[in-house]
Amino acid sequence: MRSILNINQNWGFLKDAKEVPSTLPADWEVVNVPHSWNAIDGMDGGADYFRGTCHYAKVIKRNELPEADRYYLEINGANSSADVYVNGVKKAHHDGGYSTWRVELTSDFKDAEEALLVIAVDNAANDTVYPQVADFTFYGGIYRDVNIVCVADSHFDLEYYGGKGLAITPVIEGEDAKVKVETYITNKKDSHKVHVVLKDAEGNTVAGTISDDTTVELEIKDVHRWHGRKDPYLYTCEAELIDGEDVVDVVSSRFGCRTYEIDPNNGFILNGEEYPLRGVSRHQDRIGYGNALLKEHHDEDMDLICEVGATTIRLAHYQHDQYFYDLCDERGLVIWAEIPYISSHMATGRENTISQMKELVIQNYNHPSIVVWGLSNEITINGANDPDLVENHRILNDLVHELDKTRLTTMAIVSMCPLDAEYITIPDTVAWNHYFGWYGGETSMNGPWFDKFHAMYPNLPVGCSEYGCEALNWHTSDPKQGDYTEEYQAYYHEELIKQLFTRKYMWATYVWNMFDFGADARGEGGENGQNHKGLITIDRKYKKDSFYAYKAWLSDDPFVHICGKRYVNRVEDVTKVTVYSNLPEVELFANGESLGKVKAEDHFFYFDVPNKGETTLVAVAGEYKDESRINKVDTFDESYRLVEKNAVLNWFDITEREGYCSLNTKISDIMGTLRGKLFIAGMTTSLMKQMKKNASGEKKGGGFNINLKSGGIMDMVGSFSILRISSMGGMVGIEFTKEQLLDMNKKLNKIKLPRKK
């Protein structure tokens, strides 16, 4: 019978290892896995986290192993490539840091009293294994469980792309379900039979059979459907390999029975019912842990995602822990699962996209929560017309449909990709990563853009795979794009909720991101090393106001929340206070005096509050209350204002002339006059020359090359100020000096602002 021995404890660890040891060195650090060597330097900023080879070593003693015919080493996650050695001899190599893989080590563990097992893990840059370019940290380490799987000579397969040797395909017909169960057996003998049993959630047998065949079909009468958050009902399939009265091996998996379709006009439909997919994206890291998460971390993440009311999660940008997929099944979250084919297409990486896709689909086939397989993310940053890129997508799309005939394909497309790009029409559905209102454009552009795409491709379901903006503990009563304040993030998401959630045809929408996450190359917002677009901080201790905006729209659990609790000291005599609630009416009290009741169909309630001395605010919605306070001050509290540590200038340092332009003026306003257009034309010509140099390889910034021929990128920047553009120049290797910026400001101070119509 099968048994699993967990070997997470007491590994010898050596960073930046050069040679594989033949004995376990006594001076190596002792660590337990899950473990990442980038848990600290992977999110401290500077893009200088260690990327190289590290060794994990452990002595395996024969007398500590369960009795078995065969032994397999099972590694559930080692980023990003790994080699396995026993007593100094290389046994296996694996490329891809996010999936389960196994290697048989039977003779190595049986032929001696003990064996030295070494796993060499490498997260260094290369040109064959994805990801290599992306806005998140590629944490090195063995960051999930390591097991020894002990089995009989005949057993359910353990070697085919990390799968379970069991594939379950339910098909609903009327009120019943036909369930095809395929088993894959290593060394099956003529005397062997397969005993398959289906059990309901209470453990009662609902169907079963004993067969000589490895594929059987069973029927569940009056099937209980898996119906998302409303009713995530799960069955269990148990398969036994039997020889007469003896059970040789056993494997099991839960599964769900459901139908779904993605309609280009009506969105996602689950079991014949329109079921809007409104949710979040998730990265798998934590402060102080990197991506070496524990089960309690996964549990907390799931609880928070359910609290906000999400119905779907995009598990970006790679395969996540099986434990988390199980949670998605149990809690009823509809899942987009994808491989890390991201940002920069590598002609030498095709085989890795294929192997990672096979692992993703084969290992996750039985999860009812998964409805789409993601082919790629923002892969056209360097251009969409590469024939090899297009062919790679066709191969992946065909591969997925060959491996799984029950699910659809999708991909996340970057904003500046041309609308007529050939690769857009390859998958069954598409979604776009748009940041209008943060990386250029206005928030109001998002909905109309999707209307335009929907009109252009009326038969292609479209969703929004990413949207968001960054917020830290900065505050203002006059929020502006790019200020990193909690107030602007809240405003941004209010606007996006109203635009995206009211467009029925959008099959799914995903906030980027549920949690702040590590991105060591980032240096924005006053805290380096993180992307701060999360609705919750990376330590999961603070829910930003925008979290409650979504909870108001998506959750049925009644609540009321006053925004701006961290923004206490305020200058203005009358200040705006926003309240979020999923109840229809809110009354606000200031020092016990009612400021009136407000009704709002969009769940956002606004109050003008007199700001005198210290004021205690209490919001009341039905039986629910929330409290905060504000305090009148004479001058702005500078602790609320972001002053970029590495910035040459900040927006409030710029000399402005009334009625004239400055570095703080939006590009769209500057271009409202002829002189302004000439100024922007000259600046654009200069920038394009520099960017073309970067794209040709003479200079590169941040790992990204902007394709100037892609179209659309210049359409996004109208709402940017020149100063905001200059602060983002590092993305393409362009740096402005203080003198250059001040010279531009002098020129802009001579250009009149256009008259308001």
Strand content: 25-35%
Q: First CA to last CA: what distance?
A: 80 Å
Output the structural class: alpha+beta
**Number of helical runs?**
12
Global morphology: globular
Mean pLDDT over the full residue set: 93
Assign a percent range to the helix content.
10-25%
Regions with little confidence, pLDDT below 50 for 5+ residues: 695-712
Rounded Rg: 28 Å
Largest sheet: 8 strands, parallel, barrel
The count of β-strands is 44
As laid out across the biggest beta sheet, the strand order is 27-28-29-30-31-32-33-34
Please describe what this structure looks like.
The protein has 757 residues and is α+β, with helices and mostly antiparallel strands. It is 18% helix and 31% strand. The protein contains twelve helices and 44 strands. The strands form twelve sheets. An eight-stranded parallel β-barrel has the order 27-28-29-30-31-32-33-34, surrounded by four helices. The protein has a six-stranded antiparallel beta sheet with strand order 3-2-4-10-7-8, with no helix packed on it. A hairpin with a 2-residue loop joins strand 7 and strand 8. Helix 2 (295-308) runs parallel beside helix 3 (322-331), helix 4 runs parallel beside helix 5 (387-403) and helix 7 runs parallel beside helix 8 (545-554). The protein is globular and about 90 Å long. Residues 695-712 have low confidence and may be disordered.
